[in-house]
Amino acid sequence: MGAVFAIFGGFYFWAPKIVGKTYSEFLGKVHFWTLFVGVNLTFFPQHFLGLAGIHFILSSYLDSHNPFLLDTLIISSLIIIKPNGPHILPIFFNDPVRIYKPNLNRNLIGIENRKRTVIYQWINLINGNIYIGSAWNGSQRLLSYWTPSVLNRKYHVSNSISYYTHSNFILGILEDLGKTGSVTKEFMLSTEQLYLNILFSKYFSLALNKSPSAGTTLGFKHGREFGLNRLGKLNPMTNHKFSSEFIHMQRRNKVGVNNPQFGVIKSNSTRENLTKLVYVYDAITLEYINSYSTVHCSKELKMGKDTLSKYLLNGLPFKGKLFSRVKLHNY
Predict the structure, then answer these.
(1) Which residues does 307 contact at the CB level (< 8 Å), separation at least 6?
(2) How far apart are the C-alpha atoms of 43 and 50, rounded to whole Å?
(3) CA dist 25 → 6, 7, 21 (Å)
(4) Does 42 score more than 50 pLDDT?
(5) How far is CA 71 from the centre of its chain?
(6) How far apart are alpha carbons 155 and 144 in whole angstroms?
(7) In what side-by-side order are the strands of the sheet with 169-179?
(8) Using one digit for the tens of pLDDT, what is the confidence trace for 203-232?
(9) What is the rounded average pLDDT for all residues in the chain?
(10) For 129, phi and psi rounded to 5 degrees?
(11) Could you give the CA distance from residue 113 to residue 109 in angstroms, rounded to a whole number?
C-alpha cells in the first residue's frame, strides 16, 4: 500500500503540470483521507489476526452455517483490539463464578479450584468453539490441560488448545459445587448435563464435546452393575461345575511329546509369518545377501539392536548394507 500512496502522490504532483489544469483541493483531501482511513481499517487488524492465530483465509476458520459468528468475528476484528489480537465476545451459559485468562492465570486456576468440584467452560476466542466439562477435583483436571500427554490425545478440545494455544482461550467456572466430596458424582454429572443440553441444542456447530452425555466421551454409560465387585458369589462362574473333558484339556501336560506341535518341521513360509525377518542387501548393487531374524541379524552382523532398528526405519545403508523388513527381490 505504500507504493499505491506514492503513485497517487506523484499523480497529484505531476498531473497539473502535464495537463495544465489544477484539481479541486477539497476533492483531493476527501480522496486522501478516505483512502488512508479505509486502508488502515482493512489491513491494520490483520496484523492482530496473525498474532491471534489466524494465519490463513478467514473463511476457513468459520462455520458457514453460523452467520452470527461471521458477523461477530468481523466486528470484533475491527473494534475489539486486545493485546493478543482481536477476540470474539465469549458466550457463557451462566454467570461465571470465576473467569480466567489461561495464559496469565495458570497458578491462580490451581489455587482457587484446589479440591473443589466445579463445572467449567472453555471458549475459543478465535472461532467461538465451546467445551463443557466437570471436575471432581478442579485444580487437578484444569491444570491437566497444560500437560503434553493430555494435549496429545485425540480429543477436539485438546487439538483446539494445542493449535490455537492457551492465549486464545478463556476459561469460566460456571458453577462451584463445593469441596470435593460434599456432593455426589451423580449430582455433578447431572449439573454438567444441563449445560451440555444447552450446548448441543443451541450451539451444536460450536461444540468441542464429542458426546452430548455427561461423564463420557463416546456417549456410552455403564450401568451400576458394571462397577460391582465380582469376587466370590458375584462372579457368574462361582460354583459352576465343569465337565471332566474340559478339566482334562485344561490340566493335561503339554510339554515335549505331549505338545501337538512337537517334532513338526515348519515350512519357510510359516517361519516368515511367525518371525519378523530382516532382509539384507548390498547397498550399491541391491543384490540380495541373506535374511535373518532380528536377534540373529544383530549377532551375525555385529550391530546393536537399536542401530538395526534405526536403519530399518530410515532406510539408509550401514557399512555397505541395506536393511529392509519387506522383500525387495523376486526369488
Answers:
(1) 318
(2) 11
(3) 18, 18, 12
(4) yes
(5) 27
(6) 13
(7) 98-100, 169-179, 116-124, 130-135
(8) 988 899 988 888 776 555 666 666 666 777
(9) 82
(10) -60, 145
(11) 6
